[in-house]
Structure formats: structure tokens, C-alpha cells
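WP5 quarterly update. Target: Nucleotidyltransferase substrate binding domain-containing protein. Source organism: Azorhizophilus paspali. Length: 645 aa.
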Amino acid sequence: MRKTDAFAEAGKTAVMQNIQGTMQFLLQFPPFDQMESGHLIYLVEHCRLRFYAAGDSIVKPADGRVEHLHIVKQGHVLGQRPSLFGNGIDTTMEIAPGECFPMAAMVGERPTRTDYIAVEDSFCLLLERQAFARLLTDSDPFRDFALRGVSSLLDLVNQQVQLKAAKTLGAQYSLHTRLGELTTRRPVFCTGGTSLREAVRLMNEHQVGSLVMVDAAEFPVGIFTLRDLRQVIAEGSGDLEQPLDELMVRDPAHLPPSATAFDAALTMTQRHIAHICLVENDRLVGVISERDLFSLQRVDLVHLARTISSAGSVAALAALRGDIARLIDHMLAHGASPAQLTHIITQLNDHIVSRVIELMLEKHGDPGVPFTWLAFGSEGRREQTLHTDQDNGILFEAAGQAEAETIRQRLLPLARKINLTLDACGFRLCKGNVMAGNPELCLSRQEWLRRFGGIIQSPSAENLLRSTIFFDLRPVWGPTRHCRELLDDLLEMIADNALFQRMMAANAMQHRPPIGRFLRDFVVASHGAEKDTLDLKVEGLKPFVDGARILALANGIHDSNTLERFRQLAARGVIDPKDAASYEDAYHFIQLMRMQHHQRQQHEGRPLGNRLDPDTLNSLDQRILRESFRQAQRLQSRLSVRYQL
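C-alpha cells (predicted):
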């Protein structure tokens, strides 16, 4: 072989080795590990490696339109922008090996708004604009990541969680499945005047567990099920010629075919029903049963809700409370998100609370006074996890102070028994005595209004703490109208008090996300039993909860759920919809980490807690957790600017 040929062959070998080495490096990180091999090879072939010394500016706004996507291969890069407060520079992100920048500027074909600086000697792979544009067209994972950033990584984490759960549970479908995909047969229905005999014949002929009655336009007006038939037979209350109109359940629940299996499961749980009509363009198009939802790998959600609501003893309720923890495994396997899981947990917990109240009324007698059982805190926000304690109170109506005191003395013994019984069912007694058995939290509507007014007019540290608990409220049992009136008055008082809003915002700044000056570093406890851990609830979720609360209350939003508050704030133009989506994704991920942490503790027989060692997470989870904390920082910065803190 001639020398020139040998050099050429050696050069080809070196190039191939370099391509293979770069591909192996990229395959460690998303979205590159999701890309087809041909697309990844194309990317590597169109990249060039460039060195940046510590302190070098890599890309800055003054450079004009960004021409290259940078992928950090070695070293670290900081993204910096002028401070929102106009005094200095803020570090907005830290980019580690395997991460890329400035993606948004590349997609938007514009200059970057961030100055990217090498923190240490660093190597970056530079992908030219033309190749970037082609990959954006050809590669779905690359395009998804380019357009959605960390949100696409969050989808990947959710898929991994679901697959991990499905390996043990054998899940066969997703709770995100559209109901229209679960119905494979035409609905069986009848019209007015149908007899019980004819109804039973139709149900037997078509082998169905329900018969829907429709009007002339085929809109469902009633439903008759095998459960109803058993009741008729047991009571001996009907004969076979009796019109079905007299026996059916009127105004049956209905959803569109575009609704999800989760929507159906939640509706069944709330209403204790086993069938839902599918209605499209005001016409019956199908029927979904509990069996349709849970026939393959049963998630006994509706059955559990029914069993809770009919439990005959406190001991039975306590045992059922444990079933909720096992339910979470199944829900994860079927694709439920943290928001859906906390909603379901809260819904089932509400059933337990309601049944405890009913059992205590049966055992100790009705006090003869209408009252509403209020939930505060995480239960009030419908954000409960397996790790929860009691935050509750009582609302009643009274004509004056004397009558209020008389009613209170009649309700307090019952309230204390309810609190103790809930403790026996797994809802720990509140260490701060935020419970209905506390005379200060068993109040008439006027007393609650005066108490809330005192908090707003005198925003001391103690009152600000109370506002974070009491101002996330909703009714769990009893009449709801007076709670709505109370909330209307509360929102009006807050809207008229700019000082209180500002003090609430300042209070929301006290819990800082646990990331340091260099964002790759988590701030963890340095000593004691909590050494090397951070608090996912206080340091991670609370900044979002507090930020959403102050903005929602200041803008007259009734809903107490954090994610719903963000959505309504975006709909009203209070915050940018993209920011709201980023906050929602970040909150979603931290809650997912927290629930997985609780699951591990539950399975290992350890006490449930919120402190986590971030070093136990894989690199992808660490990356998204850092970004989630950064979103919490952004929210707090927005509050600082809005309220001039």
C-alpha cells in the first residue's frame, strides 16, 4: 500500500472513531438517545468541535442571529442575563455536558437573549443552522425537544415511571385513553313507555349491564342497570309490566367520546356510579361501564369509593385507608399524572371524612344544627398525598354572637370526636391544632369573616402564616352555599388591600428553591439527621403554591388548586401562558418525585417524609429537578418585581 493511501485510510478510521465516540457520548442524554440512528449520524457528521477557555463568551445577544446549536461535550457553561431588579447579573441556567443551547433562539431564528460564558475550559459540538433545520423536520424526538424543552423530558420521565409500574402490574391500557376508543359496540337503548319486562329482555338479549332510555332526539334521559334490577327484586317494589320510567335513574352522567378514561373514573368515583353515557352532538353514541375501564388490570377506584362510603365501622375505614396507598401503584401503571393522583387521593380522603362524620352522627346523635366541614391547606387545594395530617374547621350560620356561642358548644364535642376518629383512620392530628375541635376554628360565617378580616388588616408573621392555611379552603361535607359567600367576601377584602398583598408576596419569598449560585449544585442540609437532603415540599412545591395563591387571591380567582390557579391566571392575562405552562410542568415534576419518594418509603416500611437526597436520583431526574427549581426562582422573581420587594 502506498504511503498516501495508508494516510488516507488512517484518516478515515480516525473520522469513524470520532463519529462513533461522539455518538456514544450523545446516546447518554435526551433527546439524542431517542433519535433514530440515521438522524443521529447525520447530526454528528454535521457537527464540529470547538474549544472555549474559561471566561470566554460563547454566544451573546450582540452576535446577532444565532447560527449554531451548541452541545456541551466537556466543561460547564453559564447563562447570564441582566438582573430583573436592574442591579447586576443573574445566572439563569447552568449547562452541563450533554445539554445544548441556545435552543429557543435557534428555533426562532433570532439573537439569543442570554450571554453564555464558559465557566471552565470547555468543548462544544457546534451544529450548523442548515443541518439543525433538517433535523427539526426529519426527527420527531429532536423537534419535540427543540419546541418543548424540559417539558418533553418530563414526558420521558412519566413514560419511564409508567413502564416501571407496568412491569409489576401488567397494565394493559392508559388512563389517558379516549373513551371513544374503549367503546366497540353500539349502545343498547329504549324509549319512554318501555316496560320492566321488555327492559330485562333487551339487557339479556344484548348481554349488557345497563339500558339507557333516550328521548326523540336520542339524548339520554335515564338509565336502568342490573344493580337497579337487583334492588327492585329485593324490595319487591315492581312488577314486570311497570314502566321503566318509574324505576330508572334520571339524568344519567354523560361525557363526550373525547374525554379520557381518567375523566370517567373520577366521575364514577365522585357519583358512586358504574356507568357513564357517551354523548356527542346531543346524541347517545355509547356507554362506558366500570368493567370497560378496569377489565384487564383492575384499578378498583369506584369499588373502593363505594366501600368507603358504606363502611360500617371506624376499623373498616382505617383498613380501607391502607388500600389507597396500594391504589397509587395501579394508577401510575395506567398513566395517571401526579395532579390526577393527588386529585384521586383527595377525593377518596373526602369520602373517608364524610363517612366518619356520618358514623359519628349515628353514634353520638345529630346536634340539630346544619354545619359545613371545611378543609384547609393541601386538602383544601385538592393536593393531598399519602403523607397528610388534618387541617379542618366548621362553618355554620348564626343570627348573632350569643347564638353562635350556643351552637359552637353543641358542635365542639362532635367535632373533637370526628378529629380523633380521623386520626384513627390515618389522618394525623394537626400539631398546630388547626382542627374543627378547636373553638377558634368552629365559627359562624360572620365570625370567620371577622377572623379573615383581622388577618388581612394586621398582616403579622403569625397572621401571614395563617393565611397560607386558611385561604386555601373548600367545603367537604354539608351545605356549600355559605362557604362560597365567605370566599366571595374574602376575595373582595384582599382585592382592596394592596399592603396585605405585598406582605403575602414577601412571605412567599421566604422559602427559596434549594439551588445555589451555580445551578448544578443543590443546597442540602449540612448536619444532623437531615444531612445531604432537601425538602421537596417546603423548598420545592411551596414556592409554587405560595406564588399561585397570592396572585389568585389578588385577582379574584375562587379555585384553590395550584395548577388550576396558574391556568386561570394565564387565561386572565395575569401571567404569560408559556410561563404558566413552565410552572405547571415544574410543579408536576417535583410532585412526581415526592410521590415516588413516598412510595419507596411505604414499600420499605419507613415513615413517610419529604426530605430527599438528590444524589440518589439519576442524571435525567437531577437535570429536570434543577430546572424545576429554577422555574420556582423565576416565579419568585416575578413576584419581587410585581410587588417591588
